[in-house]
């Protein structure tokens, strides 16, 4: 009888323990939440900062990369991360803005740009604001005899006060420029070595701390905006205007040592391109400073001396090929 009662009590105790364990397990299962993992691409986004694009990152990623969150993206799961850099900085972020806010007269303002990914083939520089000191604008003789004669020359168009240059370790570098180039752009080839953008400000520079804002876009090898090899400028669309750096609506001076290609993309349904310029908007160097020829907008001898009595001093060696 005692054995039977003991077995009954033991069985009841085991059954009660099993019930309690089931309750604990059910309670544990009920406390496990549902976690949703959201992934989104790091694409270009429109920030809430006027005139600035950014890259869509999580808030923590943006902070870790040194950017500033400005507005949301990816259905508010991310922030539009804006990257602004000035003198002495480096970047590998797409859509970075390089500004002259930290510039000091008499020194160089430099930004090191490394490609963001192995799929990047070029960087495109858009000069949203670009106002450096003008090049030499006077025709005072600085080369050869002090009076006009064969072998004399001047420094017209040289960037002697301010300069803007971009290195290209794996291809031809763009020309050095100065003056006003707001609205212009420039393509630069990239490779595993980083590029350097350097703007030097002379001690007598008239450029302010807001002299330039340059937007840097990483261009992938398969991108539709990738320029053909060797092109410093790349224009798209069925109409547009091609102008030299520092053109300034015709009032600027042609810069010194400009050797680059401006390319035009062939558009669908088109089979030819018409280039047109009026006689008041197209000028090259003038041989012997003959005003009548200059008014036509071209140099008839392209720097060759001795073609006829009127060209004894040669021309300006400037030319355009299409």
Keywords:
disordered N terminus, 16 strands, alpha+beta, 8-stranded mixed β-sheet
Tally the helices: what do you get? 3
Instruction: Give the structural class.
Output: alpha+beta
Q: How much helix is in the residues?
A: 10-25%
Report, as a whole number of angstroms, the end-to-end distance: 115 Å
Low-confidence stretches: 1-16, 21-29
Q: Name the overall outline.
A: globular
Mean pLDDT: 83
Q: What's the Cα radius of gyration?
A: 33 Å
Which strand-content bin applies to the residues? Answer: 25-35%
Would you give an account of this structure?
The protein contains 3 helices and 16 strands. The chain is α+β, with helices and mostly antiparallel strands and 322 residues long. The strands form 4 sheets. Strands 1, 2, 3, 4, 6, 8, 12 and 14 form an 8-stranded mixed β-sheet that branches. It has a 4-stranded mixed β-sheet with strand order 5-7-13-11, with no helix packed on it. Residues 1-16 and 21-29 have low confidence and may be disordered.
In short:
The protein has 322 residues and is an alpha+beta fold. Helix content is 12%, strand content 26%.
Give me the secondary-structure topology:
Blueprint: H1 2-31, E1 44-46, E2 53-57, H2 59-64, E3 68-73, E4 78-85, E5 89-91, E6 96-99, E7 108-113, E8 120-130, E9 141-143, E10 153-154, E11 162-166, E12 185-189, E13 195-201, E14 212-220, E15 233-235, E16 262-264, H3 291-294
